[in-house]
Structures are given as C-alpha cells and as structure tokens.
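Q: Joint fold for the lines below.
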Amino acid sequence: MMLLAKAALGLTGTLFVAGAYTFHEGVIRIDVDEHRAGGSHVHMWVPAAAVPMALHFVPQKHLRKAAEHSREALPIAHAIVKELKKYPDVDLVEVVDGSQHVRIRTRNGKLQIDVEEPDQQVHLLLPLSTLDEVTSQLEAKAPGA
Amino acid sequence: MSDCKRGFCTRTALTAATTLLLIPGLALAQAPSAKTSSAPSTTSAKQDRWLHVRVISSDAKGETVRVNVPLELAEKVLPAINHDRLHDGKVKIDCAHLNDVDLRAMVGAIRTAKDGEYVTVQGNDNDVRVAKQDNHLIIHVLDKGKSKRSQVEIKVPMKVIDALFSAGKDELDLVAALHALSGTGDTELVSVKADDNTVRVWLDSKNVAN
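A: Joint structure:
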C-alpha cells in the first residue's frame, strides 16, 4: 500500500510539474465559427509554451523563408508586442459598423482579437509572451540577423 | 513503523497526489473566467499618456471607430517602421518648400511671434482662422458648403510643432513630436464636426475612450 502511495505521488508530481510547465504561459485559443451551410467551426486550445518549443523542430529552411517573407513586419511586430506587455488590460481598437464588430485588446497579458459578423465569428487569444518569443525567434532566423 | 503511522503516511501521500492532480485543472478552469471578467481600468497605474481617436458616423449603419494608443508605445514602435518615406521615426518630405511656402521659416516665425490671429479668411464657402494662443497653434476651418456643413478645429502645442520640425531640413520628426506631446497636459488636438460624422483626437491619461 505504501509503495503504491509513493508511486502515485511520484507520478502525479511529475504530471503536475509537466502540466504546470506546459500551461505556465497560458493557452492560445482560436475559435472560428462560420454560420452558413458547410461553414467551418474550428476551436483550438494550444498550450502557449508549446509553440516556441515546436519552432525548434521546424526545418531551418522553412523558418528562414518565413522570416524572409516577414522581414519588414517582424521588427514592428516585435516592438509592438514588447511594448504591449506593459499594458496588460487595454482596449486598443474597436470598430462597430452596423452588425460588424471588431475589437483588438489586451486582457491578462494576452492579445485578444474578436471579429463578429452576422455569418461568422473569429476569436483569437494569444499570450503576449508567446508572441514575443515567436517574433524573437523568427527575427533571429532572418537573413543578416 | 506502526500500522497507525503507516496508514497516516499513506493517506497523506494519496491526498497530496490527488491535490497535485487537481491544481492544474482548477487553474485552467479559472483561466477563461479571469479572461472574461476583467475590464480595463480607466486610469493607468503610472501616468501613461494615451492618444485617443474616435470617429462616430451618424449614418444608418452608425459606424464607430475607437482607437486608444499609449504614446510610449507609438514612440517605441515608430522607429521600427522603415517603409517608403518613413524611416527611424522621421518622415521625409520632398522639399520644405511646399507651393513656394517655406514651412520651416514659417514655423520659426510663428514660434517667435506673439499671440494673435495670423490668418482670417471669411468667404462664401469657407471661414479659415489661424492663430497662436497660449503657446498653441490653432487652426479653425468652417466649411459652409450648401449640402454639408463641417467644422474642423486643430489645436497643437507649439513645442510639438517645434519638435516636429527639429529634424533635418526635409524631414518631420514624428517621434520627437510624440515625445513632446507626452509632456503636455490633457488636450484635444483635433475635432471635426460634420453633418454625417464627428472625429475627435485627444490626449489624456485614461486608457479608455469615453
């Protein structure tokens, strides 16, 4: 019985540490709902910490290509994300046009983008720390970096 | 080890294991509620300066645009944008002589001049007024068009204009202007009132546009 308890403690301890590490940066949420016949419904919850980790397994040539394509935008995106981390809860942009509603804001250190239209809804929730890490990694891969 | 102690240790270990298993689940369960419950505070913790833009259209669709940008963010991000005429936070203008008007010389003259009305035009279609008042450059345009009337008011602190023209001869220093702007008090910079929409650009310490 004692052995079983020790094993359970060891196993759950490991699971706890792994879980805590995986979710320490929160989750990336992507929700897309198209309200029409054959419309897609995508709901994704991805541990944010997994994304920068996964980038290490992406072939270098693909990363370099992506960095090259976004060469102009990367420093801007990096600067914006870096600065936005100082503003964890702000409404940055809100556009209401009839039944269309677009909102870009930060909540609890996450970039939240909501697009609502009568026939489709898109909600994105991206931790700023993850965006910072991803843009930094891509910048490092950019030609001439 | 006595049976009593062994039982206690086993129970403790199992309880600890169960608690450890439950904690990540509880933390995750709380994450979405934390996301939805929080609302932006009206005033930022330190006295950040915020540039607000609000466009309200009074047409049938009732379009509304609200933009809130921390000046510090704009100051840091602008130098990162190198595109077309914008480089290192400065905009290149083809030449400082626009339609034979030397802008820099004009700004220099206005800076040293006393407060007063410099330009007053009253026409059938437009009224235009350019003045310097309390170290602010004020431009007021009233469009008296028959179909649509509109009124534009621009009020810019002189030190912001100075900063704007502080770069090279054919450049406008946007970052310097933003920096100068962050040192000014709450102020309304641009106000456009037309029949079909209103535009307001202003500066304050609140991170929401009311």
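Q: Anything notable?
A: The mean pLDDT of chain A is 88. Residues 25-141 of chain A form one domain.
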